[in-house]
User: Which sequence fits this backbone?
């Protein structure tokens, strides 16, 4: 799995100045990346990331990557409101970053009664063009399912399977669905 930091630094760089190989990760960003990669993150890892964000004067692209990573860590820790707040800060800093919209949608999908809002956020992220559209379609499918929109969920699971045929999870989810055709009488 590629490091989110590398992705964000690449997205923030001008098109003509992209390096052939990603730059090494600055040490200051490591605590937030490590917290995001932990499954689940420990409290001390998130606290280290918090301290790093509070104490450092980091350049905007690096701070954005750190916010996104902390948001992912908070999401994985089940701190959904805090994760959504970090993704809001990322959206404010970089409204063209699809992963910020999608991740906020994922956080809202897990909160009761917020699935419809999550669908809208993830749809917006998809319209911008995420790096991994299969993951975005899958997230939107889960949001649709949470909102009771089963046909749309099935369509998005299928879109996720088409977007990444090597990823088996969407296909497994599709097995739960079945289409029934019924005769409708009009009269």
Assistant:
């Amino acid at each position: 799995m590629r490091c989110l930091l590398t992705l964000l630094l690449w997205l923030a760089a001008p098109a003509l100045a992209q390096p052939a190989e990603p730059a090494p990760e600055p040490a200051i960003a490591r605590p937030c990346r490590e917290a995001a990669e932990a499954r689940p993150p420990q409290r001390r890892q998130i606290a280290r990331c918090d301290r790093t964000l509070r104490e450092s004067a980091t350049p905007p692209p690096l701070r954005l990557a750190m916010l996104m990573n902390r948001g992912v860590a908070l999401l994985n820790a089940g701190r959904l409101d805090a994760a959504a707040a970090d993704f809001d800060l990322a959206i404010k800093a970089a409204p063209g970053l699809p992963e910020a919209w999608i991740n906020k949608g994922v956080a809202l999908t897990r909160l009761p009664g917020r699935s419809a809002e999550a669908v809208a956020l993830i749809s917006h992220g998809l319209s911008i063009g995420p790096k991994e559209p299969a993951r975005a379609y899958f997230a939107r499918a889960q949001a649709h399912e949470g909102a009771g929109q089963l046909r749309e969920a099935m369509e998005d699971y299928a879109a996720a399977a088409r977007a990444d045929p090597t990823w088996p999870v969407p296909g497994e989810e599709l097995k739960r669905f079945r289409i029934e055709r019924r005769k409708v009488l009009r009269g």
Summary: The chain has ten helices and no strands. The chain has a mean pLDDT of 87. The CA atoms of residues 144 and 153 lie 5 Å apart. The two ends are 58 Å apart (CA to CA).
